[in-house]
Design goal:
There is one protein chain. It is built from 8 helices and 10 strands. The protein is α/β, with parallel strands linked by helices. The protein has a single domain, classed as 2-enoyl-CoA Hydratase, Chain A, domain 1 (Alpha-Beta Complex), CATH 3.90.226. The strands form 2 sheets. The chain has a 6-stranded mixed β-sheet, with helices on both faces. Strand 2 (14-19), helix 1 (29-44) and strand 3 (50-55) form a beta-alpha-beta unit. Helix 1 (29-44) runs parallel beside helix 2 and helix 2 runs antiparallel to helix 7 (203-234). The longest helix has 32 residues, at 203-234. It is globular.
């Protein structure tokens, strides 16, 4: 049975991290802390050259944060929760080798932010992707407001964040949010094939090349992350986050003030 924390297994020189918190593979405080710890260990393990991130089951990659974390959060508490998410996503993004998101279902909120932190995203045909945080009075605080525009441009980033649009796999491919769309059930195999290719490369050459490719935006991302986290915590000076989260949990429409 799942203990709600990510599962890790190694296959050759590839590590597979499986988000496993039924029913929607959401992130609790424990799951975020455990994921960060697992990624730290993988960074030090020179026997691992690639990471695949996927979700347990065939319906959800991840539906994002467990909103129960925010029901009674104040600004300091929200800032710490945001910091945990941002720290794990940043550690994933900075892994020296190749990282691949095998998106095998709904990929929403923090789930999409972790996929955005990967080098490559492979998406199954039935998946839906989105950043719906504003619907519950929150905003993406794991790099979503920073990484998404880099990939898809400001227009689509604003449609997804400001309008709450969820997009299907074909649209994600068209706007370059994902690199490949495969049949349902095929994301892991496609991701593993790519990971094995990367594992046959020189680890030093891969790490150096990745730093150079990412280098043009790392400075901007670091500044943007800090501003994102501050904006997220500032939301908790008003009642919107509490109203939005509770309305969602109570299955009613929020009443914004």
């Amino acid at each position: 049975m799942s203990d709600d924390t990510p599962r890790i297994e190694t296959v050759g020189r590839v590590a597979v991290l499986t988000l496993d918190c039924p029913p929607a593979n959401t992130f609790s405080v424990a799951a975020l802390a455990q994921l960060d710890s697992q990624l730290a260990r993988l960074e030090q393990d020179r026997g691992i050259d690639a990471i695949i991130l996927t979700g347990a089951g065939d319906t959800f990659f991840s539906a994002g944060d467990d909103l129960n974390m925010f029901k009674d959060a104040d600004r300091p508490g929200a800032r710490e929760l945001g910091r945990l998410l941002a720290a794990a996503a940043t550690r994933l993004a900075r892994f020296r080798g190749l990282t691949i998101a095998a998106i095998n279902g709904y990929c929403l909120g923090a789930g999409l932010e972790f996929a955005l932190a990967c080098d490559i995203r492979i998406c199954e045909q039935h998946a839906l992707l989105g950043l719906p945080e504003a619907r519950v009075g929150l905003l993406p605080c794991g790099g979503g407001t920073q990484r998404l525009p880099w990939l898809v441009g400001e227009g689509w980033a604003k449609r997804m964040i400001l309008c709450g649009e969820q997009i299907d796999a074909d649209t994600a491919l068209r706007i370059r949010l994902v690199e490949e769309v495969v049949a349902s059930g095929g994301a892991y195999d496609a991701a593993f094939a790519l990971a094995e290719k990367a594992a046959r490369q020189s680890p030093r050459a891969v790490a150096a090349s990745k730093r150079l490719i990412d280098g043009t935006r790392l400075g901007a991302l670091e500044t943007g992350h800090a501003r994102e986290l501050e904006a997220f915590s500032l939301l908790f000076e008003c009642d919107d986050p509490k109203e939005g989260v509770n309305a969602f949990l109570e299955k009613r429409d929020p009443v914004w003030t």
